[in-house]
Design brief:
CATH topology of the largest domain: Quinone Oxidoreductase, Chain A, domain 1
Protein name: Zinc-binding alcohol dehydrogenase family protein
Radius of gyration: 20 Å
Number of strands: 15
Distance between the termini: 12 Å
Keywords: NADP, Oxidoreductase
Helix content: 25-40%
InterPro entries: ADH-like_C, ADH-like_N, ER, GroES-like_sf, NAD(P)-bd_dom_sf, Quin_OxRdtase/zeta-crystal_CS
CATH architecture of the largest domain: Alpha-Beta Complex
Pfam families: ADH_N, ADH_zinc_N
Structural class: alpha/beta
């Protein structure tokens, strides 16, 4: 089969499409024929910074058709359409994944959209579960035009929250108004925090969803109300960043790390959230904007597009 690998971490040009052996499933796994791949931020981070082990191939999220199931698998069968997640292996014609990381695709749902739901919308939904967002509260989403951010805007709006989003381009944020964004904050010359305080008349944000990290996190924390909560999702702006712990203490701020992948193997509620999102997408209640689609053999061009700033929507590959 064909799969994407690389010899050393680096830019898109390091990736190669090679011939490899088809995976052999374990008793708790399923084998799928990949039809659509969602390029996730984690894929880009991995490609830039992490080496692959022998037999590993790039990619988090893919949807396709089950070809075979392991002896311990229940509730899934060959011929069934599923979206899948794993830390490796999406960029291939076949992939083996644990059954608990498979989510049935409702009839008629675009496989590209299905492939994108576990990571982006799934993470957004889990962040709100952790942060206990309530109707009438105010949520600030840092990086609102990203894959998690677009879903976070829609879900918060459906919950009846006031939704404030940040981004580097006004035109991208304006497009988010159709998904429920109430207030757009363009960052750059002026910090987001100062603009949010001016908008709200002080520190009145109930919940911060941070998909960026770095200085943006510290800035965002300081617009939370006393007793507010920050959910950390992204580290694109830096893995190591100092936070004023005295400020957290004095203002009773809660910080929560949100990493959904490990939760599926432990918590049924995490799997239920993704299944609910799948049905919402099939019913037209959740939108996953599509920016562009490339064939797998154009993986370099696909990653170049995925790293282009200012776009709104996911970049996909299909087989």
């Amino acid at each position: 089969m064909k799969a994407v690998t690389y010899a050393q971490p680096g830019g898109p040009e390091v990736m190669q499409l090679v011939d490899v052996a088809e995976p052999v499933i374990k008793p708790h796994e399923v084998l799928i024929a990949v039809e659509a791949i969602s390029i996730e931020g984690g894929d880009i981070i991995s490609r830039n910074s992490q080496s692959l082990q022998p037999g590993e191939y790039l990619g988090y999220s893919a949807a396709g058709t089950i070809l075979a199931t392991g002896s311990d698998v229940q509730g899934l069968a060959p011929g069934q359409k599923v979206a899948t997640f794993n830390w490796r292996g999406a960029y291939a014609e076949r992939r083996a994944v644990p059954a608990y990381n498979c989510f049935p695709v409702p009839a008629g749902l675009d496989p590209r959209v299905a492939a994108a739901i576990p990571v982006g919308p799934g993470t957004a939904a889990w962040a709100y579960h952790l942060g206990k967002l309530q109707p009438g509260q105010t949520v600030l989403i840092l990086g609102a035009a990203g894959g998690v951010g677009v879903a976070a805007v829609q879900l918060a709006s459906r919950m009846g929250a006031r939704v404030i989003g940040t981004g580097t381009r006004a035109e991208s944020l304006e497009k988010l108004r159709q998904f429920g964004l109430d207030d757009a904050i363009v960052v750059g010359e002026q910090q987001a925090g100062d603009q949010v305080r001016a908008l709200l008349g002080g520190n009145k944000v109930d919940l911060l969803i941070d998909t960026i990290g770095g200085d943006a996190l510290s800035d965002g924390v300081e617009v939370l109300r006393d007793g507010g909560t920050a959910v950390i999702i992204g580290i694109l702006a830096g893995r190591n960043h100092m936070i004023d712990t005295e400020y957290l203490l004095l203002h009773r701020i809660t910080l929560i790390g949100c990493l959904l992948g490990p939760e599926w193997g432990e918590k049924q509620i995490a799997r239920d959230l993704v299944n609910e999102l799948m049905q919402m997408a099939a019913n037209g209640e959740l939108t996953v904007p599509v920016d562009s689609t490339f064939p797998l053999e154009k993986v370099i061009e696909a990653h170049q597009r995925a790293e282009t700033r200012g776009r709104l929507g996911r970049v996909f590959m299909t087989l």
